[in-house]
Every structure is written in C-alpha cells, then in structure tokens.
TrEMBL record:
It comes from the Bacteria. The record marks T50, K107 as: Stabilizes the phosphoryl group. GO terms for molecular function: metal ion binding; phosphatase activity. The record marks R106 as: Contributes to substrate recognition. NCBIfam families: HAD-SF-IIIA (TIGR01662), Histidinol-ppas (TIGR01656). Keywords: Carbohydrate metabolism, Cytoplasm, Hydrolase, Magnesium, Metal-binding. Coiled coil: none annotated. The active site is at D8, D10. This is D,D-heptose 1,7-bisphosphate phosphatase. GO terms for biological process: carbohydrate metabolic process.
C-alpha cells in the first residue's frame, strides 16, 4: 500500500486571493514547488482533491477547469514535480443538478479521497490531508487520514477548536517538513 498527501488546491498550493476561473489566474505559492518535491522525494503520492463548484454554478466550464489544472501540472512539471492525480468535485448545492455530479465527492465529504485511495492503492491511515479550510480537514478525517491545516488562503479564518487539525503549519513547505518529521517519529516507534 502507498502513502499519500492529499492536497487542497486553492489556498494551499496556489494563491486564492482571487477566484481562479481561468488558467491565467493560477499563481502557485512560492514555497509550493519545494514542498511538493520534498514530499514526493520521500515516497508520498501527491494527490490534489479540489472543490470546483464554480463549474456547476456556471462560472466556468469543464474544459476551463481542465485547462486550469493542466496549467498547474505544467508549472510543477517544469520544476521537476509530478502529481499522481487530480480529483475535482464540480458539484455545488446551488449548482446545475442535471449535470449528475456526485455530492459525496464535495468536501467535507470524503468521496474524492476514497476514490483516489481505491484507484492508487493508498493506505489512508498512513496518509495526510492538507488544506486551508475546515472542510478539507473534515474530509481527511472522515477518510481516516491525519490532517494538516495551512494558514495560507483561508487557513487563518478557521476555528481551530472546531476543526481540530492534527498539525498546524504556516504554509505548505512548513506542512511538508512537519509531515516528514511526524512520519519519521512514527517509523522509529514501529521499530
């Protein structure tokens, strides 16, 4: 079984001070590349799980979402970082229900994580969910992962007592270092 770091996209990997509805609006956080490289080099599968309800709300279409994700992949690949998967929930409670999107995929539900775990042979108990919102942490916890709140994006607005993250980190690079330290201490206990 593989271990993974599930990553929210907007506010965790890229700046979300503006809503990202086209590829030109996607700006990676400066520390994201180093953080993802570090985690990938240490054997973690890197899987993006992102709520993109703007599709069912009509703010963008499926093709535009694919182009935005491709832009992220290309920017990371150009720097030697490779994602193992991207799972996106386009369902939204106020969106176009005729699309047939699965509401169990939208965080705080755990559907995207469970699907990725099935697809890639992921051991969820050895994995982490990193995000900037309580819904990210709830999805990770529901799937059986340890959770990391980053204080980028909307992370500084999260009610810590309600969200109860396992780890709090200033940004994705700090989160990566904390994950690796925690993983190392757990591995040593197993010996």
């Amino acid at each position: 079984m593989n271990k993974a770091v599930f990553l929210d996209r907007d506010g965790t990997i890229n700046d979300n001070s503006r809503i990202v509805n086209n590829p030109d609006e996607l700006v990676l956080y400066s520390e994201a590349v180093e953080a993802l490289r570090l985690l990938g080099d240490c054997g973690y599968r890197l899987i993006v799980v992102t709520n993109q309800g703007g599709v069912s709300l009509g703010h963008m279409n499926d093709e535009m979402l694919a182009r935005i994700n491709l832009r992220m992949v290309e920017q990371l690949m150009a720097r030697g970082v490779f994602l193992d998967g991207i799972y996106a929930s386009t369902w939204h409670e106020r969106g176009d229900q005729s699309r047939g999107d699965d509401p169990s995929w939208r965080k705080p539900e755990s559907g995207m994580l469970l699907r990725a775990a099935h697809d890639m042979g992921i051991d969820l108990k050895s994995s982490f969910m990193v995000g900037d919102r309580a819904t990210d942490l709830e999805a990770g916890r529901a799937a059986g992962c340890r959770t990391v709140l980053v204080l980028t994006g909307d992370g500084d607005k999260v009610d810590l007592s309600a969200a109860a993250p396992d780890v709090i980190a200033g940004n994705l690079l700090e989160a990566a270092k904390r994950i690796l330290a925690l993983d190392s201490s757990i591995s040593q206990q197993d010996r």
